[in-house]
Amino acid sequence: MGCTADGIADALRAAAETVAEHRAELIELDRAIGDGDHGENMNRGFAAIVSALDSGVPEGPGAVLKLAATTLISKVGGAAGPLFGTAFLRAATVVGAASEMDTQAVVAALRAALEGVQARGKAVEGDKTMVDALLPAVAAGEAAAGLPGADVAAVLAAAADAAAKGAEATVDLVARKGRASYLGERSAGHTDPGARSTALLLGSFATLAAR
Amino acid sequence: MSVGLVLVSHSAKLAEGLAEVAAQMAPDVTVIPVGGVPGGGIGTDYDGVVEALRRANSGDGVVVLYDLGSAQMTAELAVESMGEPGAAVLADSPFVEGTVAAAVAAQGGADQAAVRQAAAAAGAPGQEAPSATGAVDVESVELELSNEVGLHARPAALLARSLARIEADVSVRLGEQEADAHSVLALMSLGARKGDRIEIRARGAQAEQALRTVTELVEGHFGEADGTH
């Protein structure tokens, strides 16, 4: 089964719920090594996506992803705005005007999202950023898509699992990008908030797809 | 008209304060501060930047300066959203120094590329003054600073600006230090005070005119009400 516009809209609503539930946790993580606004910013951005969807779901999954992108870019206010915004925008571009996203389209969208984040933020693996969650997630999703009988749920499950592990592994890293990089060695010992929220988003998409 | 500047900051106060400093040195340049998020919090405002880019562009283009990480990314996205490619460009520079240098360059009539270059070159320590030393056709004059504040921000800006349209390489020496007279920041970093003797060296087609211009400025106390009190 592929993802329709309504399917993507449901995934974004699920993500908004997850972000709201983890708002305090993200604030705590960001307070430790950043400026403390990540939870608030993500919550504001995803709440704005939900209100935009409430006033009408655009036609086609690409258009829904684009709506998410422009809303995040306008409403988040922190680095997560342009980064997740660019991720969704690149994903939307890959989907184009297709009415449904099949397994390959989901994998391609994930890959495009990663490339967008890297182009925008200039971070590489190991910099203690969302790339450390997204990069293994895309690799795992692509690997899962190559297995017999792979579907969207299997791809997202693999991606979410890898993202969660990637986010956990940022604990030991010293930040080389973003606000945490100003802390140098002192940034080690904390999970990167952006990697954590990336894992949360993919986790909510996977949970929804598995239903 | 001149190149417009947009200052993207996490803080409204920071952006507005910097715009004030820039306006003091470049009164005719459009400098639009965009700081904080709507409602007053700390953060960057994409829609605000898009709107500012539109307002700052009088046809000569816009140079965008930013403070930290997400301000850069937000500014990049806003620049990419503009219909006209190249209408706005980002300057990779220290926020304060870059803005001041860009504003002064824009005030002097520099084009978009030159304004961006002025910003990028600002704040790089030990920036080279195009030294006039050793050249055969160097004109020079020694002057005593008699204005109250010396070569401080406003006089330095005035000096650099007054030379913008004169075809000459001009430098200012104070003791062993030499500064490019076209660079406000270099002039300021000389730390020349009231009573200091500075040497002006000029080379080029309009070297004499350059020296006359500087002499008039110094002797006229840079327009300060009275250099003696």
If helices are DSSP runs of H or I spanning 4 or more residues, what is the number of helices of chain B?
Answer: 8
Walk across the major sheet of chain B and give the strand order.
2-1-3-4
User: What's the Cα radius of gyration of chain B?
Assistant: 19 Å
Q: Kindly report the average pLDDT value of chain A.
A: 96
The total of beta strands of chain B comes to 8
The number of helical elements of chain A comes to: 9
Q: Indicate the structural class of chain B.
A: alpha/beta
Strand composition percent of chain B: 15-25%
Span of the ends, CA to CA of chain A: 12 Å
Give the topology string of chain A: H per helix, E per strand: HHHHHHHHH
Estimate the global geometry of chain A from the Cα principal axes: globular
The helical percent of chain A reads 55-70%
Spatial extent as radius of gyration of chain A: 16 Å
Oligomer: heterodimer
Report the span from N to C terminus of chain B. 38 Å
State the largest interface: A-B, 19 and 15 residues
Largest sheet of chain A: none
> Could you give the order of the helices and strands of chain B?
EHEHEHEHHEHEEHEH
SS-derived structural category of chain A: mainly alpha
Q: What layout of secondary structure does this protein have?
A:
The complex is a heterodimer of chains A (211) and B (229).
Chain A (H helix, E strand, L loop, with lengths): L4 H17 L1 H11 L4 H17 L6 H15 L4 H16 L7 H19 L9 H15 L6 H18 L23 H18 L1
Chain B lengths: L3 E6 L2 H14 L5 E5 L10 H11 L5 E5 L2 H13 L6 E3 L4 H13 L4 H10 L17 E6 L8 H10 L6 E6 L2 E4 L3 H7 L6 E7 L3 H13 L10
Parallel strand pairs in B: 1-2, 1-3, 3-4
Antiparallel strand pairs in B: 5-8, 6-7, 6-8
